[in-house]
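User: Fold this; tokens only.

Assistant: Input:
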Amino acid sequence: MRAPLRPFQSNWPRPVVASFLVLALALDTAWIPALLGQSKDVGAPLAGARWSVTLGGEIIALAASPTADTLACVTLEPPRNGVRMAVVDVFSCANGRRLTRQTRSERINSIAYDKNGSRLAVACGALEVWDAKTLQIQDFLAPHPMEDEGFVRCAFSTDGKWVAGGSWKGEIVVFDAQTKKKVVQLKQKWTIGSLSFSADGTALLASCSDDDATVSVWGTSSWKEKWHAAEPRMLPVGLDPILGPAAFVKNGKVACGGLRLEGPIICWDAESGKETTCLDRERPHSPTVCDLCAKPNSASFATAEDSGYVAIWTLGERPTSHTWQAHKDQVRCVAFSADGRLLFSGSRDGSVKAWDVAKLPAPLEKASPD
């Protein structure tokens, strides 16, 4: 059964609205529900995807539950009367059926599940903890600050002990998930672009970007910085400065994309910070890496790119990559299911797709330079 759609209110004459909706049903077009600010629930698989859902706005964040059964999705809806609403939907990983929905007036930039999938950390200026089933607020870890000073990234440690939030101003605050007390406050130069704990909970990773793009790792026993790496950006005017998404990969590596415009993906040893691998991003890869996520219990990770491409990379003596056209517009976020069987991608065009990792679309051929 399809999840109910939100009522559509319009000042247009009823006969005009009725005619418009009849035409939409006849054409069965995906853009009509998006125009109305509603979602077109699960449709036929598109371009090799297991399932696809089209929502009424930009997809800006995804998080897959550690139980491999649900996917949380954040959509930024088009402006209405000067206000942009953020919508959080929870879908079934298996078939894309929507399970629940919550709408907020604050912009939600990041979400993350806890160790058993019962709670969600939410960075929405404030840092909050929600019930993952009902999407109701359970706790406020940090209040909503002044504009452009709040939290934009969040992460639960894999053992559920800590919740971390990263802010516009480069501050990283770690809270005890049980007592809600502040454990430590760390500082970076600029806006936090990505934030994650290692699988064993012994390290915290953050990336940020300003004139330089920086990746830093702290040990969670002392909260002292273990190492950091920086690259000069030299970005064109107008390019989004929040680049350089990074993640821990199973085989003791940290992978980061987007440090250099049209440059490689760089991997470091997670313990020492020594650069170990430089993966060339030749065509058809696009200039900007918008997101990067590690595949659980694997030496693989996925990247989301601004021209609609998604790629899965596998580290080893001879690193490999598989790239395909996943969306027609910028891919904003990617997330693996906890069992690693599915990869989810979300796009600026409003679509969320689930890809069977064992049955990916044919890879794109590398193009020669112009």
